[in-house]
Amino acid sequence: MPDQSIVSALVLGLIEGLTEFIPVSSTAHVLLAGHFLGFESPGNTFAVLIQLGAILAILAVYATKLVQIALALPTSAAARRFVLCVLIAFLPAALIGVVAHGFIKSVLFETPRLICIVLIVGGFILYAIDRMPLKPRYKDVMDYPPSLAFKIGLFQCLAMVPGTSRSGATIAGALLMGADKRSAAEFSFFLAMPTMLGAFTLDLYKNRDALTFDAGVLIAIGFVAAFVAALVVVRSLLDFVSRRGFAPFAIWRIVVGVAGLIGLSIWG
After folding, report:
1. Which positions, given as ranges, span the membrane (predicted)?
2. Domain ranges for the chain
3. What is the pTM of this model?
C-alpha cells in the first residue's frame, strides 16, 4: 500500500470529521479533495464509510443525554415525542436513499463541477437565510412537534446531491420552519445518527464484494481521523453558532466552490 494513499486517507478522514456537522457538505469536501489528491475508492465507498467515525463522535458527546432519553421513554411523553420526531425526519431520506442509491453513487458522486456549483449556490442560500429576520418559535429540540420534524426530513432529502450538505439542508429547513439556530443545529446532530448509520449500512452491503483488505485499512485510517476531528467540532459547534450564526459557513462554501471550479479548469 503506497504511503501516499495512507496520507491521503488520513487527510480525507480529518476533512470528513471537521466538515460533517457544519453546513458545508463533508461529502463535497471529501470528494473534491480526493479528486485532486488522486485518491481512488472502489464504488466511492470511502467517503460514505468513514462517516461511521463521525457518528461515534456524536454518540460519545451525547451519550449521557441519549441514555436519559432512553430511560425516560416509559414515563415521559416528551421523550417519546422526541424519538418519534427523529424517526419521522429520517424516513424520507431513507426511502430516497434506497431507491436512488445507484444513481447517486455512479452519477452525482462522479460530477465534481456539479458539486462545486451546488456548494456555491447553497452558500448564497444559507447566507440569505442566516440574515433573514426570522422569529423562532422552537428553542428546544425536545419541544419539536412531529409536523416540524417531517418538514425538516423533507429538506434533508436535498442532501442527496453532493455539495448540498445534510446538516445545511436540515438546519436551513429548521430555521425556515421556526426553530432557533442552536436547536436547529442540535436536531441536525440527532438526525445524523440514524441517517448516517443507514447510509453506512446500505453502502457497506452494496459494495461488500468490491472492498479489499487495502481498502479496508484506508477506511479504518479515515474512520479514526474522522472520529477525532468530529469530536472537536461537535463539542464546540453549538456555542459557535449561537454567537456567530451560519454566515461564516456560507462564505466558506462559496470560497471552496469557486476554488474547486478554478482547480478543475486548470488541472481537470
Report:
1. 43-62, 82-104, 110-129, 187-205, 217-238, 250-267
2. 3-267
3. 0.86
